[in-house]
Specification:
This protein is of the alpha/beta class. The chain is 17% helix and 26% strand. Bound molecules: zinc ion (2 copies).
Length: 259
């Protein structure tokens, strides 16, 4: 699996030179195998997506908070004639199509997805399922309104995408089991320990809680994602320096990781 970090900013995009190293685009990661192109979330980072050629394209969307779907309206992929398979769990009584059309319709957007040239195929999530020879499993995160943690298994390699997740004793235990022996975990570390004291219940986690999952799961590596929009490059670099392990780092937009 080849993973390209297209956007790792949380909550809202940022711009300016002080964000240039880690990037300002919101949640979007491209996972490629020989035969599949799978996007994890469709935040504004999606606008940086490379051409994936003839590979079938799927989106595994964690939840429809706007930072996770805001790349869709202007994505060249959705403006092409391609078939695009979209997986998103039914929430608030709305299926995948219903959740996307809440954003993509007047008055929030001038037109609906139905007039786009692409061919969207919507799926609810019933785990496990397969995208070619990638096995996709899911776990419910702890997040206001809900969010899905995805696990992708392909040819002996495992990637876990755990964003928009707030730690609890019980959930961390469940996540460590779900991510057992993963090669890589992408983990929501939006807040410092100090910030978290003020942000309890907002549905995000910390570096310390991520490292706990890294150790308890037996996973090889962790990349922190969903950077707080108030954390500039200098701050993220300082947080990274304090990690005290070479098995973890903060996601930089544009980086490519091979598993
Ligand atoms: Zn988010
Ligand atoms: Zn969210």
């Amino acid at each position: 699996m080849k993973i390209t970090i297209l956007g790792a900013r949380g909550s809202i995009p940022t711009d300016g030179t002080e964000f240039s190293e880690f990037g300002g685009g919101t949640s979007c990661f491209l996972v490629e195998t020989d035969s599949q192109a799978v996007f994890l979330d469709a935040g504004s980072g999606l606008l940086h997506a490379p051409d994936t050629g003839d590979k079938p394209v799927s989106f595994l969307i964690t939840h429809s908070h706007v930072d996770h779907i805001m790349g869709i309206p202007l994505s060249p992929l959705f403006l092409s004639g391609k078939r695009v398979d979209i997986y998103l769990k039914t929430r608030n009584g709305l299926n995948a199509a219903g959740q996307l059309s809440a954003l993509m319709n007047p008055p929030l957007w001038p037109v609906g997805l139905d007039i786009y040239p692409c061919e969207p195929v919507f799926h609810d999530t019933e785990f496990p399922f397969a995208l070619g020879n990638i096995k996709v499993s899911g776990m419910e995160a702890n997040h206001p309104g809900g969010s899905t943690v995805y696990r992708l298994d392909h040819e002996g390699k495992t990637l876990v995408y755990a964003t928009d997740h707030e730690h609890t004793e019980e959930k961390q235990k469940e996540l460590a089991e779900f991510a057992h022996n993963a090669d890589l975990i992408l983990y929501d570390a939006q807040y410092t320990d100090e910030e978290y004291q003020r942000m309890k219940g907002y549905g995000h986690s910390t570096v310390a809680e991520g490292l706990r999952v890294l150790n308890e799961s037996g996973a090889k590596r962790m990349v922190f994602v969903h950077h707080d929009p108030r954390h500039n490059d200098e701050m993220l670099k300082a947080m990274e320096k304090q990690l005290g392990t070479d098995r973890a780092l903060f996601a930089r937009a544009g980086d490519v990781i091979e598993l």
